[in-house]
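Task: sequence design from structure.
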């Protein structure tokens, strides 16, 4: 344990340790957050704790697209204004947030919850590919937009999906190459994502 932790109480030390496990939070940031929470009023702290707990106890995967949902279906799948014949395939739920922020896509989504990565033991059966095929086989799909990340794993997944879906007579497109290789969709800016969506290309 860091020598500095000997000067603080066990509960604060534990909070710093837990906060430090979050992505992007280093030791100093964890300390600042811990002491901010220590000074915050009781209601704000309990609200935060309840919100964190609710993520694990009150959410589920949408029964249609596998986005995060509070009910059986997510807000996109229950919307009456979305174009259900166009499916945009993404790797993770946070990718939907990035694409929705752009505000130009009016179709629906399908979340794979990962990408094919043999080196990490992730195969086609470990992500939601079968569920995607089932949706396509139900009919009424005019276009499948593959919006996997422009990484080696994302490209491998995109190629596999193209070879799997295109023989079914579905128009398969890919986001335009405005996204630099190695960039994850959730971190791309709005302008880049807008151009990638609007300029999507045949696979």
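Answer:
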């Amino acid at each position: 344990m860091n020598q500095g932790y000997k000067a603080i109480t066990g509960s604060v030390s534990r909070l710093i340790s837990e906060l430090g496990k979050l992505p992007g939070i280093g030791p100093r940031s964890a300390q600042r957050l811990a002491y901010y929470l220590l000074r915050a009023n009781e209601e704000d702290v309990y609200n935060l704790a309840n919100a964190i707990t609710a993520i694990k106890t009150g959410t589920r995967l949408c029964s249609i697209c596998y986005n995060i949902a509070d009910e059986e279906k997510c807000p996109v799948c229950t919307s009456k204004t979305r174009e259900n014949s166009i499916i945009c395939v993404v790797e993770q739920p946070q990718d939907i947030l990035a694409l929705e922020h752009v505000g130009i896509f009016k179709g629906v989504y399908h979340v794979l919850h990962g990408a094919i990565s043999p080196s990490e033991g992730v195969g086609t059966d470990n992500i939601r590919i079968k569920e995607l095929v089932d949706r396509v086989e139900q009919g009424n799909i005019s276009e499948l937009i593959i919006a996997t990340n422009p990484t080696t794993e994302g490209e491998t997944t995109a190629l596999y999906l193209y070879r799997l879906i295109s023989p079914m007579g579905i128009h398969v497109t890919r986001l335009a190459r405005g996204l630099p290789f190695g960039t994850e969709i959730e971190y791309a800016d709005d302008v880049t994502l807008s151009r990638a969506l609007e300029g999507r290309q045949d696979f």
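The chain has eight helices and seven strands.
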